[in-house]
Amino acid sequence: MKRRFALIDMAYDPDPPRHRRQIEAALGRARSLDAGLALLPELVFHPYFCQTESPAPFAEAQVLDGERTDCLRQWARKYGIVIVTSLFERRLPGIFHNTAIVVEQDGSVAGIYRKMHIPDDPGYFEKYYFTPGDTGFCPIDCSAGRLGVLVCWDQWFPEAARLMSLAGADCLLYPTAIGWNPEDPSAVRSRELDAWITIQRAHAIANGCPVLVANRVGHEADPSGHSAGIRFWGHGFAAGPQGEYLLPPDSEQSSVRVVELEEDRTAAVRTHWPFLRDRRTDAYGGIIERTTRGIPPDLKKPKD
User: Fold this and answer.
1) Which terminal Cβ of the chain has fewer Cβ within 10 Å, N or C?
2) Residues with a known catalytic role
3) All domains of the chain, ordered by start, with CATH?
4) Is the pTM of this model over 0.85?
5) Dihedral over Cα of 11, 13, 14, 16: its sign
6) DSSP letter for each residue of 120-150
């Protein structure tokens, strides 16, 4: 079976009505290209507010059955397309999540995934805003297949990709918001982008399944004025089950591109490169520990 997925890289427009029109236009373009699913960037309705710590953005969070989800549901029904993105979820007073949502073609919600790995780095102060997820690494079944949906910082962790694959995910999808510090040297920026692409292609190879990524583009200023902001690097791409490019990383420009996935190819690759079969599950106990490095031998000796 073949499925057509659209990867949408786009910038945030600070005019909310215009931004929503741009999202809808991208979804309409995806449908015109015969895509059955559209992958949007992380937190698509918002600026990337995590560049600084401020209580103000919490007012923008919504419950999962809120107006932004309704908007996604309307678009999914209008265009007959599955939509994947993430939302700023207000779960309870004091508990907020970065929550991926999969909206079916008929406007129903197929499932959610709450971001598990939460970064705390200069320009990415997400621990201030988001409680770590509690949904586990469970694929979401929909008309586009069994989707292993993860979010941005999750893409650096092989454990997340592996657990989604072991649970039967047909493919891994990463709605993302990542970019450069504009003041970093070009060599640093190049290494960062290359590492980001490489780790995700490695997930495709290690798990024998496609990986699809959509990212933000454009410059967003630091609201505090303490830094040069973030220039989101775009370069959304799709890799096949042997890490090959199905859609290569393209540019820092907004784009709607479609990739065709073949389920039979995933099955064939997993048969011929049986990494899942040959895992030594009896020997991996240490993987759930923070570190397996114990007390240095010299410290175990009694003092004279």
Assistant:
1) C
2) 42, 115, 152
3) 2-300 (3.60.110.10)
4) yes
5) negative
6) EETTEEGGGT-PPP-S-S--EEETTEEEEE-
